[in-house]
Write a structure and sequence with these properties.
The structure holds 2 protein chains of 2 kinds. Chain A is mainly β. Chain A has 11 helices and 52 strands. Chain A has a 22-stranded antiparallel beta barrel. A 5-stranded mixed beta sheet of chain A has the order 10-15-16-13-14. Chain A has a 4-stranded antiparallel beta sheet with strand order 3-2-5-6, with no helix packed on it. The radius of gyration of chain A is 32 Å and the shape is globular. The chains are: A mainly beta, B mainly alpha.
């Protein structure tokens, strides 16, 4: 290097007197150090000038330089930049090295991008590559355990249905706690559009193999630019775009097989009789099996409740096996991408069909996408993102319905599922409604057509100042068709029943903003973004129900004899917003950020139409300071802090029929009298109604050790939410009972730790990543109210949201087999009268900490990645336990565990004496509360990439074969020792809500899926 | 230059797009209308008036509990509550908790009715001049009657001490447009509430037409006025108002007693009845008095104490029957579909109101006897004569007895007990006992610091 400078100087001295700088042409090829492949699209710039070019498809470039002292700068995302002095050469070939330091990644932010090193806020990134081909319907399921502080809970194992996401804890009691989703810069519809209490998931319409990266904005400085909708965090999804170069084709296929993660041991025929005969005897008139209960003999009672119990065929039915099926996954992905310097494209298509682990439950997705970018001039570029998908979800009844598949396990094993007397038929005399009627004679299909389209244009007005305009449409059209045959419990007596419901959500966004970036004297880096955003969401819904079908073959309402119900409704809401952000970097060391958004919304009251959501942040890259430069081990150190406010506008009013105008005084048409229509006031106006406000402080450290072989982030945050929206009681003399008001506070605070380590580099490489997050949630003010949810969940002041409140189970009285409860009256006393026991906080559905631990190994094309995911410290309340673990209280089948019942004085057990109809320990209590902590072997992928030598022979760019496992192993105490409980990751769909958390009720477990696949590139 | 132009155009475009995008943030609800337009024109006010009737005839008010709870609270052994609901049982046992749901529902639904009436009254200026009087009259009728029931349940009787110092109920005469601290209204005196009742009903009597479909008429207003005056002991006005209904000739007693009940449309003697249909409304009396086979829960048995009030030849005895389970029931609300109207104001009551008032003011006179005979004769009993009564008191007592027979289980027990200042034999409670007044609901006491609880609670 020194030599070349010297020679350049000498040369310069010689020629300077004779000629002025001469224009000449330099050319060369840019290749990758790793594999020698040419790199198209590399920026080549003559340093200190505006002269630049881009390498072509074969990595070649040609550029004019002024003189031998010129310096060429080669830069390309994902590679370390290279600077080369031209000297006298006319050909300069360059090798570029992949950029391994993760700190120099570019991350997507609200309305822009930023270097990760320059971030002053907390943004978690997941690359699309990490979640490629994970065998689940929706991307949120695929990122479980991969980011710190994001709790993702599947409500149950039904495919295509609701998922609870909490970023840094729940920040609301009444409004939504789900984050805001933004795809390619456009806010999309993510709320359930389900006809019943079980949520659907509109994000499952997205083919997540199209995802380039996912960014999760967690602190206020990152998310405040999304203003009144950012209090629950923001998830930015960026889809793949074409790169300059020859067209690349990829084809992927995978085939998967699923089983439930766990099965519960239920009593078989012998066990059933053992338990219930004993329960009968204990409750009978003479204390033996020969007595009577309620005047009925043992045989008499069995005849009433479980007829067929004495059938000579000795039925021994395993109902659980009937409920489950072998799940399957078939998925084909095709994509093509590439482009010229002018025009780049990415095109993809997917066909995916997944049969769940419950019979008749399936999810199917056909999706296509075209992303096109065009550079019309140096100044003007524009493009289009277009995706169209169709999903079909064969759904089941909610977990609370007798007809739902997994409630089959409540049936008595001594009964046959099929008609014992006639071949082919189903048994109508089962203890509860036989779900097989639903399986065979009903259908519940949800079909969605989803279109996301964005059109954008960028224009560089002057150097550094760019104007961006973007128009996006998210069109969701959903049709739900339910048909219940004449023998199903819903269609019985009315000759079959059918419902058809259409929902269309048209979500338009129009964003216009200016971006300015300038570096002054290599010292001051300034970037400013500001603009406006307008969004309108219109939702139309139409439904019709008919009854009386000629036969079960007729399933459309057109064939119904009676139209029994019908309705059409429309909802509308608007956001008009102004946003701005400024970042300033001084001497590459000192970082300052400022952002704000003013959100106006039709949801808010007249007096609070516009909310202002500011944030400030600062960072200091300490490792750039000279006093740290000598430290060898510490390669990077940054401290940062941010404060900001975000809002929660995801709330609805007390009017069920017009929920999007919560601040208005309303009259609805529900006031008819004597056959004459009338109106009635349905909502009292509150012109002061507004968003909930969350103020968040985040303090963090980012560091790199050993030349960034080890990097990490540690964050502490404190989120204080005020103006909680609550329905509060008002004086009845007003003519109203409750009104929506902004009262109440809650807080979340916690730590997040993220570590990445490249343990081994070279031929055999090994990297590790680990994340863990602790969150403490506490409600500090609820205006004195206690709100309830779930079975026994409560929101009460001084406690985390959703705590379980009930009597505390004290086990079994060894003397007499009575269930005992702690009095909790200040004494240690117990009682066998559950009503005498105090209702106390017996547990919390919120985990103490969550996280993930991943390891990736690579050796000569063989790669192995292993991800562990864990959730610790939460409880799960199995509301179904009151029917599944009852020591023979009623005829529902019980777990084998119930055979541990108390039998003789002195027996020490936690299962009370079996007493038919005795209610011995079957009340809601901590008896049915279990530790819900778990650790899962979430994802294991073993893959092999064919070497280049083989590929070139068969004319392929890449070929990868893999086998992957999802949810292979789960370590948990939930359902341990034979207790009822399939899977600790649960929140039964019909009770899921802000307060209804951590409940199980015949909810299906997660699927354990093994897939085999191949991806080929041409 | 060309380049420069592009730049200017782009700048202008950016400014226009950024500045010009402030949308319209006022969204109109689609399934509802905002309060502003809900009363914006004559049709809208008429619809809101119908909505007021709808609430007024709620099962917790005029279609059930207004009557049933008055009979349960003041019962002296003529009926028996055997139902599982705790709220009515507390009322029947005359030991009501402040958390009683029935009591708070009566309070809440009543004020919801009053608010709806107030809304209509606040918007009379948009009603056509020709209609405004009727609309005002109907709204005032609804409000006046509701306050009358409220003050009798939640306050001391008119004649119990000084009505102008006894606490009645909060008096709200303007509609609720928003809720703030001013909504914490304290209780007006019994006297002030009665004054409002009389003013509303008198206005209604003057404003309403004599014929108005099944909606309120001047006769309905006069009919209720006679009930209010009787409660106050203002017999002269009771005579005038009841008399005006009788002499109008608009109504006539049905030929059979049974024909006056279980009808899906108004009978000839219904001055005002709550309309019930399959689509709308419910007959709350059917729910509790009728056995399951007749569409009810069968929660109220009728005892022999009540049956003993009748002469053996009294046709009204035929109204009683034993249900399938063997319990004795009244036949007044037995339609299994539950779609029969609820009789609120019958001509029979007018005769009894006027006759008793005449007897009390004029003593043994033929006019009183004639009014007594109106219901007696219809029930198949012999005509009474002046000679049958030894004293004025005997005649008055006969009127009171006749009311217990003729108007049985139609909600008169509590009012009659109080105005006649009687004592309940079984419980020993006197007419002015604290237990015979509802408590102010607990939920209301919690949020309105200006309310004072009734004595005894």
């Amino acid at each position: 290097m020194r030599k070349s400078i010297l020679s350049s100087l000498l040369l310069l001295l010689f020629v300077s007197g004779i000629v002025v700088a001469q224009e000449r042409t330099i050319s060369g090829t840019v290749t990758s150090i790793e594999d020698g492949a040419s790199i198209p699209g590399v920026n080549v710039l003559v340093k200190g000038t505006t002269t630049g070019t881009i390498t072509d498809v074969d990595g070649r470039y040609r550029i004019q330089v002024g003189g031998e002292d010129a310096v060429l700068v080669f830069s390309y995302i994902g590679f370390e930049s290279v600077e080369i002095e031209v000297g006298a050469r006319s050909t300069i070939d360059v090798q570029m090295a992949a950029d391994v330091t993760q700190l120099s990644e570019v991350v997507v932010t609200g309305y822009g991008t930023q270097l990760k090193t320059d971030l002053t806020g907390n943004i978690a990134s997941v690359s699309g590559e990490e979640i490629q081909n994970v065998p689940v319907p929706s991307f949120e399921q695929a990122i479980q355990g991969r980011t710190a502080g994001v709790l993702i809970t599947n409500q149950n194992g039904k495919v295509g249905q609701g998922i609870d996401i909490r970023i840094r804890g729940a920040s609301s009691v009444s409004a939504s706690n789900q984050p805001l989703y933004v795809i390619d810069g456009v806010v999309v519809t993510s709320e359930s559009q389900s006809i019943n209490a079980a949520n659907t998931n509109p994000l499952a319409d997205l083919n997540f193999n199209d995802i380039e990266s996912i960014e999760i904005l967690k602190d206020a400085s990152a998310s405040a630019i999304y203003g009144s909708r950012a209090a629950n965090g923001v998830i930015l999804i960026t889809t793949k775009r074409g790169k300059v170069g020859k067209t690349k084709f990829t084809v992927g296929y995978q085939k998967g097989f699923s089983q439930p993660t766990n099965k519960v041991d239920w009593l078989d025929r012998d066990g059933y009789f053992e338990l219930f005969d004993e329960a009968f005897a204990n409750s009978s008139s003479d204390g033996t099996i020969n007595g009577t209960v309620f005047g009925l003999t043992r045989a008499g009672l069995y005849d009433i409740f479980v007829p067929g119990w004495d059938d000579p065929q000795n039925f021994n039915t395993d109902w659980q096996e009937l409920a489950f099926q072998d799940g399957q996954l078939d998925q084909i992905d095709v994509s093509a991408s590439g482009g010229t310097e002018k025009t780049r494209f990415f095109i993809s298509g997917q066909f995916s069909e997944q049969d769940g682990i419950l019979t008749k439950n399936s999810f199917e997705r056909n999706a296509g996408r075209i992303n096109i970018d065009h550079r019309a001039t140096d100044k003007l570029s524009f493009g289009l993102d277009f995706s169209l998908s169709r999903t079909k979800n064969n759904r089941l009844s909610t977990d609370n319905a007798f007809s739902t598949t997994l409630q089959a396990i409540a049936q008595a094993p001594v009964q046959s599922p099929f008609d014992p007397n006639g071949p082919g038929g189903l048994n109508q005399n089962t203890l509860y409604y036989n779900f097989l009627f639903h399986r065979d004679q009903s259908s519940f299909v949800t079909r969605v057509i989803r279109n996301l389209t964005n059109i954008y244009a960028n224009y560089e007005i002057v150097n550094g100042l760019t104007f961006t305009t973007k128009f996006g449409i998210d069109l969701l059209t959903q049709n739900e068709e339910q048909f219940f045959g004449r023998n199903t419990n819903t269609g019985q007596g009315v000759g079959g029943s059918g419902t058809n419901r259409w929902v269309q959500v048209a979500n338009y966004t129009f964003d216009n903003y200016l971006t300015y970036a300038k570096t002054i004297n290599d010292q001051h880096d300034v970037s400013v973004t500001g603009g406006i955003s307008y969004q309108r969401v219109r939702r139309d819904q139409t439904s019709v129900t008919g009854q009386g079908f000629p036969s079960d073959l007729f399933r459309q309402v057109a064939s119904a004899a009676n139209i029994t119900a019908g309705s059409s409704t429309e909802r509308d809401k608007i956001f008009a917003s102004y946003f701005a952000r400024a970042n300033y970097k001084l001497n590459n060391k000192y970082l300052f950020g400022l952002s704000g958004r003013i959100d106006g919304s039709s949801i808010f009251g007249d007096n609070e139409r516009y909310g202002f959501f500011p944030s400030v942040s600062a960072g200091w890259i300490v490792s750039e300071e000279s006093f740290l430069s000598g430290l060898g081990t510490l390669s990077f150190l940054k401290v940062r802090a941010s404060w900001g406010q975000t809002g929660n506008a995801f709330f609805t009013g007390s009017s069920a029929i017009d929920p999007d105008v919560p601040a208005l005084g309303l009259f609805d048409g529900n006031g008819a009298y004597g056959g004459i229509s009338g109106t009635s006031p349905s909502q009292v106006p509150n012109p002061d109604l507004k968003w909930e406000t969350t103020s968040q402080i985040d303090i963090g450290i980012d560091f790199g050790l050993f030349e960034d072989r080890i990097t990490g982030e540690i964050d502490y945050y404190f989120k204080d939410t005020e103006d909680l929206l609550l329905n509060v009681n008002v004086p009845g003399t007003t003519g109203f009972r409750t009104a929506s008001k902004n009262v109440g506070n809650l807080e979340n605070k916690g730590w997040e730790i993220l570590l990445n380590s490249n343990n081994l580099v070279g031929e055999f490489s090994w990297s590790t990543n680990f994340n863990i997050a602790f969150n403490d949630n506490k409600i500090t003010n609820l205006d004195g109210q206690v709100l309830t949810g779930g079975f026994i969940n409560e929101a009460q002041e001084g406690q985390p949201i959703g705590v379980f409140v009930g009597p505390e189970y004290a086990g079994v009285d060894p003397a007499n087999g009575d269930a005992l409860y702690f009095l909790n009256d200040g004494t240690e006393g117990t009682t066998n009268n559950v009503n005498a026991a105090e209702q106390v906080v017996i547990g919390s559905p919120l985990p103490d900490f969550i996280g993930g631990f991943g390891n990736n190994f690579a050796y000569k094309g063989i790669e192995l990645s292993v991800l562990l995911q864990f959730v610790y410290g939460n409880d799960v309340y199995n509301g179904g336990g009151r029917f599944q673990e009852t020591n023979g209280d009623f005829f529902d089948n019980n777990t084998e565990y119930q055979l541990n019942r108390w039998q003789n004085p002195g027996d020490i057990t936690d299962v009370p004496q079996a007493r038919l109809f005795g209610g011995n320990g079957t009340a809601h209590s901590s008896r049915y509360l279990q530790d819900g902590s778990y650790m899962r072997l979430k994802t294991v992928v073993l893959s092999y990439n064919l070497p280049a030598s083989v590929l070139s022979k068969i004319g392929m760019e890449s070929a990868r074969v893999y086998v992957s496992g999802q949810n292979l192993l789960t370590w948990t105490a939930y359902g341990d020792d034979g207790r009822a409980g399939w899977d600790p990751e649960v929140n039964t769909d019909f009770l899921a809500g802000n307060i209804g958390l951590g409940n199980d009720f015949y909810a299906a477990p997660q699927a354990r899926t093994i897939t085999f696949g191949a991806t080929l590139g041409f | 230059m060309k380049y420069y132009n592009y730049r200017i155009i782009a700048m202008l475009l950016a400014v226009v797009l950024i500045a010009g995008c402030d949308g319209e943030l006022d969204i109109k609800p689609k399934q509802s209308i905002s309060s502003g337009v809900a009363l914006g024109d004559a049709d809208a006010v008429q619809a809101a008036l119908v909505g007021a009737y709808d609430e007024f005839t709620n099962g917790d008010l005029m279609n059930g509990d207004f009557h049933m709870h008055a009979d349960l609270l003041a019962d002296d052994g003529e009926l028996f509550w055997n139902g599982s609901f705790i709220g009515p049982r507390q009322i029947f046992n005359k030991s009501i908790l402040i958390t009683n749901g029935e009591v708070s529902e009566i309070w809440l639904e009543s004020y919801e009715t009053i608010n709806r009436a107030n809304l209509v009254l606040s918007a009379l200026d948009v009603v056509d001049a020709g209609d405004a009087g009727r609309v005002e009259g109907e709204a005032k009728f609804i409000r006046g009657v509701t306050y009358f029931f409220l003050v009798r349940f939640f306050g001391k009787d008119w004649n119990d001490g000084d009505p102008n110092s006894n606490a009645g109920v909060p008096l709200i005469t303007t509609p609720t447009s928003s809720i703030d601290a001013s909504a914490e209204v304290s209780r007006a005196t019994v006297g002030a509430v009665y004054a409002q009742v009389l003013s509303d009903l008198t206005d209604a009597a003057n404003l309403l037409p004599t014929s108005n479909g099944f909606f309120a008429t001047s006769h309905a207003a006069n009919g209720f006025l006679s009930r209010v005056y009787l409660q106050q002991g203002d017999f002269a006005n009771a005579i005038t108002t009841a008399g005006s209904v009788i002499s109008s000739g608009a109504f006539g007693l049905t030929s059979n007693y049974a024909d006056a009940f279980n009808s899906t449309s108004n009978t000839s003697e219904d001055i005002f009845a709550s309309q019930v249909s399959a689509q709308d409304g419910a007959n709350g009396l059917n729910t509790f008095y009728a056995p399951p086979e007749n569409g009810g829960r069968g929660d109220i048995d009728i005892t022999n104490v009540h049956l003993a009030l009748y002469d053996a030849s009294d046709d009204r005895l035929n109204m009683f029957y034993n249900d399938q389970a063997g319990a004795q029931r009244t036949g007044k609300w037995t339609d299994a579909t539950g779609n029969d109207n609820v009789n609120v104001l019958r001509l029979a009551e007018m005769y009894l109101n006027r006759g008793e008032a005449i007897a009390r003011t004029q003593g043994l006179v033929q006019g009183a006897i004639d009014d007594l005979n109106a219901t007696r004769v219809r029930a198949g009993l012999t005509m009474a004569t002046l000679g049958d009564f030894a004293s004025q008191q005997e005649l008055i007592d006969e009127f009171l007895l006749e009311r217990r027979r003729e108007l049985a289980f139609e909600g008169f027990t509590l009012g009659d007990l109080k105005r006649t200042q009687g004592t309940l034999t079984n419980s020993g409670l006197a007419w002015n006992a604290d237990a015979l007044v509802f408590p102010i609901p607990d939920r209301e006491m919690d949020i309105n610091p200006n309310l004072v609880q009734n004595p005894g609670y």
